[in-house]
Design goal:
By secondary structure, this protein is an alpha/beta fold. The chain contains 8 helices and 6 strands; from the N terminus they run ααβαβααβαβββαα. Helix 1 runs antiparallel to helix 2, helix 1 packs across helix 3 and helix 2 runs parallel beside helix 3. The protein starts with 13 loop residues before the first helix and ends with a helix.
Length: 207
């Protein structure tokens, strides 16, 4: 007879506990962000997610220096001992629609069609996966600076779990975790808090 198992949603796997210990020791006062990343890991290991889309899509909001990017880097390093084993995209470099070619490659007939090595490709995504990390993390840093072309690309990825590259081929992104960071609203929030300051302050400033 086949065995039946009861899923305990309140219990983390051993690997998730190990990564959690690292995040707790390295990241301060970012419980929501770290818990979101740990839930992604449990979700991926359980297999209970929509396999036609990315495993998860997260948006981290906060002022500069609050640890948005560091959370993701520590998460990746906790899994594979290499915080650079992900695709990090500085959206400030994609403020014009034509710059999307750096991500997906130039279409035939355009300058640099064969010379462009796209940041997102099947080969690149697969090279970052392994037994220690069965998915690829895509970090879109300061996503508010992205052009409409990049926003449309992101919407397609999150909705369909794929993108069409410069040579009109489909690139699957169902084995990815999408994380976006943004500073939107930080200035307004700081003004409401008072003194225009959020985050860590010096003793002189406190006095």
């Amino acid at each position: 007879m086949p065995r039946s198992y009861t899923l305990n949603i309140n219990k983390h796997s051993d690997r998730t506990k190990r990564v959690a210990d690292r995040l707790v020791s390295r990241i301060v006062n970012q419980d929501e962000a770290t818990n979101a990343l740990l839930n992604v890991l449990d979700k991926q290991e359980s297999g209970f997610y929509d396999h036609s889309r990315p495993i998860a899509s997260l948006l981290f909001l906060g002022p500069t220096g609050s640890g948005k990017t560091s959370c993701v880097e520590e998460f990746v390093e906790g899994l594979c001992n290499d915080r650079k084993r992900m695709i990090k995209i500085d959206c400030g470099e994609f403020q014009h629609s034509h710059e999307i070619a750096k991500l997906i490659g130039s279409p035939p007939g355009y300058l640099g069609h064969r010379e462009t090595n796209p940041l997102i490709s099947e080969k690149k995504l697969a090279s970052l996966r392994g037994d220690d990390m069965a998915f690829t993390v895509l970090l879109f840093d300061e996503v508010e600076k992205a052009s409409d072309a990049l926003w449309n690309l992101l919407l397609s990825i999150m909705d369909k779990g794929s993108l069409t590259n410069g040579t009109n081929e489909q690139v699957g992104l169902t084995k990815t975790v999408i994380v976006m960071t943004s500073n939107v609203g930080s200035k307004e929030l700081a003004e409401k808090v008072g003194d225009g300051v959020l985050g860590f302050i010096t003793q002189d400033r406190r006095e």
